[in-house]
Write a structure and sequence with these properties.
The structure is a homodimer. Chain A has about 350 residues and is α/β, with parallel strands linked by helices. The first copy, chain A, contains seven helices and 20 strands. Chain A has a five-stranded parallel β-sheet with strand order 6-13-7-8-9. A five-stranded antiparallel β-sheet of chain A has the order 16-17-20-19-18, with helices on both faces.
C-alpha cells in the first residue's frame, strides 16, 4: 500500500482506501554503507546471519555498535576469525568517556578492531570478499574475508510509502516529524509505531508505540499523550553493556554528581571470575534524584532493570540506599557506586541530602 | 566476658566492667541434633566444610534448609554421593505450597532425599560414620557415609554469657526478648545485634543491627527506633530460591491475590536452557500494593532485588507494570506474573485498580 493523498491509500493498484486514520508500522531495514552497494547480494546483515548453516573461517563485521559487537564477539568466541570496522572511534552505545575507555581496553584485548578506518572498496572474489581500507594511520590494507556482516545501523522502512503525497512534514532524513507521546505525525490522522518511527528501535518501546498508535488511531481526532518509560537499553556482549535513563552525553554536568564502582574487586564478580567492568550512576544535586547510569559489567542486564525502575520512580540516592541488598551479589557493586554518589551529594546537594545519614547501614 | 549483674561484666575473672550500655554481638553456632551429640567431633558443619582438602566419596547432609540444599547440591554436582536427611517434609525456605511442590519435584529428581526420616543413631566407624535411620515408611536403614555434614540450623551463641544475671526477660528458647527496631533487650541498656539476636540471620540484616545497636548503645537512654528493610532472602541453589517481603505463610489469603508465572516456557529461560521454576507474586486487594513473592528459578537473586525494592516502595501492581522491561530477559517472566496478578486485582481490588488499563503496553 502507498499513500496517494493525505489519507488515501492505493493497495497494489487494485484497491483505494479512504482511511479515517492510518498506522504506519513497517519496521526498519539495515543500512548498507556505499562501498557495499555494488556487492549487496554478497553481504550478510543481522536479518540473515542466523540462517547460515556453517561457521565461516573469517568474517568482517562492518559496525561496532550493539549488533556489531554482540555478533562479532559471539562469532569470535565460536572460533571465527573476526575483524570489526568502523569509521568512528566509538564501541557500543556508551557516551560516558570512562566507560568508553574501558570498552576500548576490554574489547580491544579480545577482538581485532579497525577503528577510525575508511572502507575504500569491497569486491566479490571466488572465496569471499576482498576489502580494501585505510586504517587509522592512513595505511592501506587489502584482505579477503569469507563473509561480510554489515551491522551499520537500521533505518525506518518508509521508501515507497508515498509519504510525499501525505503533506506530512518530513525531517532531514525523510522521516515524518513525530510525537513520541502520541505517535502522531504532525496533526495528521497518521500514527507511526515501532522501528518505522526512527525513535527507539527496541522491542519494548515498539510494543508501547503499537498500543499508543492503535488507541489513538481508533479515537482520532481525540489523541491522548502517554508517558513513556524510562530509557533502558541492554546489549548482550560479555561484559554486558547497559544504558539507563539519562545518558552521560545528555547530562548537565553542573547539575549532577557521578558515583563510580569498578567490578574488578567486587566480591561476587571475583567469585564468579567475571570481575571486569565499570558502573557509573548519575544523581542530580537538586534533591539527589537518580537520573541515569551507564554500566559495562557482568549481568548488567539485571542491575539495569533495578536502576531503570528506580529512575522511573524518581528515587533519591538516599532512598535507593534504604533498599535491601543481599550478600554476596553483584548488586553490592551498585550499592558501592550509590554510596560514593551519596557522599558527593552530601556536600554539593541542594535538597537536604544529608538526611541520608539516618537510615541504618547505609 | 559474662554478666554478673544487670550491667556488670566479669572479663575472664580478672576485670570487672561497670557498663553504661552493652552490645551483644556474639553470633551464632550450629545446632547439632541429639543423635550426633556423642560423635560431635566427627561431624562437619558449614563452619568447617570449606576446610576439607579433598572431596569425600559419600556424604550425609543433615538438614534440607538453605545451607543443606546449597552445600548438598554443590557437593552432588562435584561428584560426591550425597544423601539429605530431614525429619520434616520441607525443602528450602518456601512457604508457598505450589513452590514447595515444585522444589520437591526438581530437587527430588536430582538429589537423594530422606524426607520425614528419623535419625536413630550415628556411630563413628573406621571409614566414616554409620547412620541408622527409619525412612518415611518406617523402614530401618543402616549405611556408612565417609562424611556427615550437619546443616540443621544455627542458634544464637549466648551460652555462658550469664544472661540469667541481667534480669532480662528471656523467651522460651532462652533468648532475650528484643525489639528489632531498636535492637534493645526489654528496657535494659543491652542491645543485641546480628545472629546473636536470633532474628534474621543474614549479613545485610546483621549489618543494619550493628549500626542500630551501636548508635543506641551510644545514645542510651535515648533509644531510636529504625525502619527495617523489606525482607529479602536468597539461596544459591540451582534453580535459585528467594523470598521477598511477606511470605505466603504470613498472608491473609482473604486480602491478597496471587500472580503466577512458570519459567518452563519463559523465553530467555529457554534460550539459556534453564527453563525450570516458578514465580509467585502477592498483591493486596486494597490498593493493589505488592506485598511479597516467592521465587524458585534461574537468576532468582536478581528478580528478588527488583521485587524487594518494589515492595519496600509500596509499589502497586499497576505502577510496577509501568516500569520498563527489556527483551529477551528473565524479568519478562516477572512481568507475566504481574500482569496475571493485575487481571485478578481488577476484579477483586478495592482501590480503583482498573487504572492499570491506562499505561501503554501493560
Amino acid at each position: 500500500a502507498r499513500f496517494v493523498g493525505p489519507t488515501t491509500l492505493d493497495v497494489d493498484g487494485h484497491t483505494h482506501v479512504e482511511a479515517r486514520a492510518v498506522v504506519i508500522a513497517t519496521g526498519s531495514e539495515p543500512v548498507i554503507p556505499p562501498p557495499f552497494d555494488a556487492v549487496r547480494e554478497h553481504v550478510m546483515t543481522s536479518d540473515d546471519v542466523f540462517e547460515i548453516p556453517d561457521l565461516p573461517e573469517s568474517i568482517a563485521v562492518i559496525g561496532t555498535g550493539i549488533i556489531g559487537l554482540e555478533l562479532g564477539q559471539a562469532l569470535h568466541r565460536l572460533g571465527v576469525d573476526v575483524m570489526l570496522f568502523t569509521p568512528f572511534d566509538e564501541l557500543g552505545p556508551f557516551t560516558d568517556p570512562s566507560i568508553q575507555a574501558l570498552a576500548h581496553e576490554i574489547f580491544g584485548a579480545e577482538l581485532k578492531l579497525q577503528l577510525r578506518s575508511k572502507m575504500l572498496s569491497a569486491t566479490a572474489v571466488p572465496d569471499g570478499m576482498q576489502l580494501h581500507w585505510t586504517d587509522s594511520d592512513g595505511n592501506e590494507h587489502r584482505q579477503i574475508f569469507e563473509r561480510v556482516l554489515v551491522a551499520a545501523g537500521r533505518r525506518p522502512r518508509l521508501k515507497g510509502l508515498g509519504l510525499e503525497n501525505t503533506g506530512l512534514e518530513l525531517d532531514a532524513r525523510g522521516q515524518p516529524v513525530w510525537d513520541p507521546h502520541t505517535t502522531q505525525a504532525g496533526i495528521a490522522p497518521i500514527f507511526v509505531a515501532g522501528d518505522a518511527s526512527g525513535h527507539i528501535a527496541l522491542l519494548h518501546e515498539a510494543s508501547d508505540e503499537g498500543h499508543i498508535a492503535g488507541a489513538n488511531a481508533m479515537s482520532y481526532p481525540e489523541v491522548t499523550a502517554h508517558v513513556r518509560r524510562t530509557p533502558l537499553a541492554i546489549a548482550f556482549t560479555d561484559p554486558q553493556m547497559a544504558l539507563i535513563g539519562q545518558h552521560y552525553s545528555e547530562l548537565d554536568l553542573d547539575e549532577v554528581e557521578i558515583g563510580t564502582a569498578s567490578f574488578e574487586n567486587q566480591g561476587r564478580a571475583r567469585v564468579i571470575g567475571r570481575n571486569r567492568g565499570l558502573l557509573r550512576v548519575y544523581g542530580k544535586r537538586h534533591c539527589c534524584t537518580l537520573v541515569g547510569a551507564e554500566i559495562f559489567g557482568p549481568e548488567a542486564e539485571h542491575l539495569a532493570h533495578l536502576l531503570a525502575w528506580a529512575v522511573q520512580q524518581r528515587l533519591s540516592v538516599p532512598q535507593a540506599l534504604e533498599m535491601p541488598v543481599y550478600h554476596p551479589v553483584l548488586e553490592e557493586g551498585l550499592r558501592t557506586a550509590l554510596r560514593r554518589l551519596a557522599k558527593k551529594l552530601r556536600v554539593t546537594g541542594q535538597c537536604r541530602c544529608e538526611d541520608m545519614a539516618i537510615a541504618p547501614g547505609i
